[in-house]
Design goal:
Length: 413
């Protein structure tokens, strides 16, 4: 297994460790003492106190999503591969795109002013703060995350090969991997050992080479990098692109101001689920501190994600792209389900004064992803909020990362 970590699939921030993980006992109560229960499961001791959470330098909560990044030494390889693929997708292009407005699920938004970001004090290194006045011009955005069916049409038309396929692997949560595949995996992410690099995992094989898309063509495509997402959006529509972070947040808010979720401040209005997140069989103390800070020692988070997802919201992993009620702009699943790529480079240095059509810094190491995913839970990753954001390198991919497309208003008809 270590051989795959040495070739063109190295990952940064992983401090790869040898593992022999088996599922821990579930149904136990997580507490200040539950690290003792994990020792028998082989989970590594993070060496970090519970109040400090996992590695503070990552700025991540305990979902581990911030640790899934490809090694810097692979960037040159990825760049060369992507240039070839981007060129192939544009050959024979008539400039009008290959999906009509209905097929692309586009809705035209009028633009306008809103307050972007949060002053809630969540995850300082994610860079949500401060709340700041922003205006966006009219634009189009898809009501849905890009589905497997649409991405398959793109691949069938162009022969496109994703970065996960080129590199040979992608990250999958341990409990979704079959025993046959698991027995060949001998490494994991030290900062998030429930995430494993799986050979053959890709958009076509979401949990590994022995899985497929049967029954999931209407689910969001996953294991796609930022580069993959951009290639699809350019193919889909004339002027197609990823939304800027400001456009994404404007659309996700659905016209509501100073609200946590696209529908308001209550997570479950009338005790109904409005998004796809994680419901763990592990019993957790749902106090206000856990809800706000979402930090756990690595070994404790490992137990949490080894416990069964009870899927009280209806889904164990991803959900169909049209699941749950849409917001007032008609968009589905802007929070939960899968993280969504945006066009912007990540920064924590925001201009507090009014800006029109901000696009983030001109360059950087990480792109911004928004919206959280089915892996989120208030005890581990309180990022299923419209203001939440995380950095991720543009060639990275995982089981909980997808996208939706956008376009400037003047480019559509």
């Amino acid at each position: 297994m270590m051989s795959r970590i040495v070739h063109a699939a190295l990952w940064s921030m992983i401090a790869v460790i040898a593992v022999g993980f088996s599922s821990c006992a579930v149904g136990t109560t997580l507490s200040a003492e539950f690290g003792k229960e994990l020792e028998a499961c082989g989970a590594p001791d993070s060496g970090v106190g519970q109040s400090e959470g996992i590695e503070a330098s990552t700025g991540t909560g305990s979902c581990g999503c911030g640790a899934l990044k490809r090694e810097t030494s692979d960037k040159g390889v990825a760049s060369e591969l992507m240039q070839d693929d981007l060129a192939s997708t544009s050959s024979g292009d008539d400039g009008q795109g290959h999906e009509n407005v209905e097929q692309a699920g586009l809705v035209r938004l009028p633009g306008g002013r809103f307050f972007m970001g949060s002053d809630g004090g969540f995850f300082p290194l994610d860079g949500e703060e401060p709340v700041r006045p922003v205006e966006v011009s009219p634009f189009w955005i898809s009501k849905y995350e890009t589905s497997n069916a649409r991405f398959k049409k793109f691949v069938d038309d162009t022969g496109y090969v994703t970065e996960a396929e080129r590199f040979g692997n992608s990250f999958v949560v341990e409990q979704f991997i079959s025993k046959d595949v698991s027995k060949h995996i001998t490494s994991a992410v030290a900062a998030a050992p429930w995430w494993l690099p799986v050979e053959g995992a890709s958009w076509k094989h979401p949990e590994g080479p022995d899985t497929d898309l049967q029954g999931r063509m209407d689910h969001p495509v996953i294991h796609v990098s930022w580069n993959d997402a951009m290639a699809f959006c350019k193919w889909s529509r004339k002027g197609g692109r990823l939304p800027t972070e400001a456009e994404w947040e404007f659309a996700a808010r659905g016209g509501l101001e100073n609200r946590t979720f696209p529908w308001g401040n209550k997570m479950m209005p009338k005790e109904q689920y409005f998004m796809n997140t994680w419901q763990s069989e592990a019993e957790v103390p749902l106090d206000s501190n856990a809800f706000k800070h979402s930090f756990l020692p690595t070994k404790d988070a490992y137990q949490f994600y080894s416990a069964r997802n009870t899927k009280e919201d209806g889904f164990e992993s991803t959900a169909p792209v049209d699941s749950y009620p849409p917001n007032k702009y008609g968009l589905h699943n802007t929070v939960g389900n899968v993280w969504e790529w945006t066009a912007d480079w990540h920064t924590t240095d925001h201009i507090p004064a009014f800006q029109k059509n901000p696009t983030g810094p001109a360059s950087g190491d990480n792109k911004v992803k928004k919206g959280g995913s089915f892996m989120c839970h208030q005890f581990t990753c309180y990022r299923y909020r419209v203001a939440a954001r995380m950095p991720l390198t543009p060639d990275s991919s995982a089981q909980n990362v997808g996208f939706r497309c956008a376009a400037s208003a003047q480019n559509q008809s």
